[in-house]
What does this fold into?
Amino acid sequence: MTQIGTKGELRKEDVTSGESIYMKERYGTPFFSTTFQAMDTQVMSMFQRNSHDQGSAGQRRPDNGSNGGSPRNKSRQVLKLFLLIVGIVLIFWALPQIFSQGSNVNGQNVGELPYSAFYQQVMNGNIKDATFQGQDITGDLRKAISLTDANGNAVLTSQYHLTQLPNGDPNLVTLLNQYHVQYQAKPVADPNLLLNILVSFLPLVLLLGVFFFMSRRATQSQQNIFSFGKTRAKVVPGDRPSTTFADVAGVDEAKYDLVEVVEFLKTPNKFQRLGGKIPRGVLLVGPPGTGKTLLARAVAGEAGVPFFSMSGSEFVEVLVGVGASRVRDLFEQAKKASPSIIFLDEIDAVGRQRGTSINSSDEREQTLNQLLVEMDGFETRQAVVVIAATNRPDGLDKALLRPGRFDRRVTVERPDWNGRLAILKIHTHNVPLAKDVDLITIARATPGMVGADIANLVNEAALLAARRNLVAVTQNCFDEALDKILIGAQRPLILSEADLNVVAYHESGHALTGLLQEDVDPVTKVTIVPRGQTLGVTQYTPLDDRYNYSQEYLEAQLVTALGGRAAEQVALGHITTGAENDLQHVTAIARQMVTRWGMDERLGPISLSEREAPFVGTALATGSREYSEQTAAIIDEEVNRIVKRAYDHAISLLTSHRETLDRMARSLRLYETLDAKQLQAIMQETSKMRTQPL
It folds into this structure.
């Protein structure tokens, strides 16, 4: 399989293969441009396992609009209310217990009189009176006797208490009448009256409390309706600049364009006294991960002004008008804090061309209209700069891009190798590096990578060194981290001898055709260790960033990409499915040579390719092509001719250097990985010289 990472106008499908999805998605850009934009290339040829085979190879934002008060105060209020309720419940529970403990009357203890002893005292004429109250009988004695109180203590008392029999005593009243004892009956008293009242009214109290709580919340919600349209922008005060231009590298051209904005924010009078006007808007355009947001923060940090950051998607809500309200509030806060910077990330979320929605009252369009009004409504001397970032400038509304709103467009491109070196130095500043680490080599080996990718590379290398318990990050850690990012993690895949032989010859074919041609980037490594979805890899590293590709270079790429399939044919006598990705790669380049770059004699210097979205590298869906069926047939014929010629040349090279091919395949079987020095040694031992290019 062949894999190429690029910089500039390099199409992913032109020079990248479908095998390494990561490289395709992240490092592929349009392959070539009529404006000759910067392009860097790293080629990797990989043996792809058949996708139809069974097995593993086939498989913190602050809410500035809230009006609810401090969370600490709210928690204290809830705690106080809870403690108050608990105290009331305890009081209502304790009072009945206190009142129910009627252990004395008139200061005298009441003795517990057994029922049988009560009969005896009546017949002895010692019972003065008796009071019936439920099952209890109380009264006075004529003479004090020794009894036990409720606590079991012996007391001398003239008051008694006893409990009647469960079913009553029909002879008791007769006995009392017989001995002339005064008796009376009283209704049963409830000693836990207060507790019963509490139990009866507690559900009602709780219901009223819940109703009161919901009323309070409803009132707060009604108040928050007015804050629903408040901005949710993250504010970085001007006296705490966390990012400066010293933290940004690899985008020097963009930094130079933003220096004047910093100077205006620092000393606006310097420009205004000569009639100069502040640039109201700066649009940062570039691929994802190139540092557009970092640049905006650096501008605010250098100028020492408040920084209001918000994403375009945060303006859009279900309710129509909320986004427009947030736009108004955002600009109002920025004007109060003037001079200040407003940063709108992914502005294409709200700034797309109007009229594309079926709904005429689309929330996004309402938000865009308000944004246009606010950017047009700045007073001349208000030092408020709007910086927006996007990687889809082609879809933005024309009214948004006109001068007076976004006066400047700053392109933030992928860094060259010098830029990548500067980025590496920034990200490795706090990383202990071993003496063998060569940042220049790493920078040259990562063409097409942006700042975010390089930061990820350094982090992966540091994690790998930590897992190995190293005291510093070594060059080997960086190499393995790069392989893991570009190709995938190493797989413990067990291959048969036949498969190993096929992969070894396939990768040897890629490497040998690369070594035998002049217009090919140097071969730096060949391996048959399975990684990701690949069974083998041949890596080519450019000596420098490329800004233009010749026809000879592209034809040499075709030969190199077909070297794996040609090696199978020459050495094994049969072909396999491992070249699937190589064929896709070759076909894409050949078709672009014919339809886009005018490198075909039969069709001539005309462009027949589809229009692409800038900075994304994907073809725009136009729904039709601009050439006839006859022209399409000619294109297919020429693509087939170019590919067949390259394949025949690869067969010729490998046939004439069969001894070197066999030696390289045997070395791969023995060592699994060969570097550039080992490959050159094999070439010298077999006394093979480079031939002329195709």
About this structure: The CA atoms of residues 36 and 548 lie 6 Å apart. DSSP finds 24 helices and 18 strands in the chain. Residues 1-46, 49-71, 100-106, 688-694 have pLDDT under 50 and may be disordered. The first strand starts at residue 2 and ends at 6.
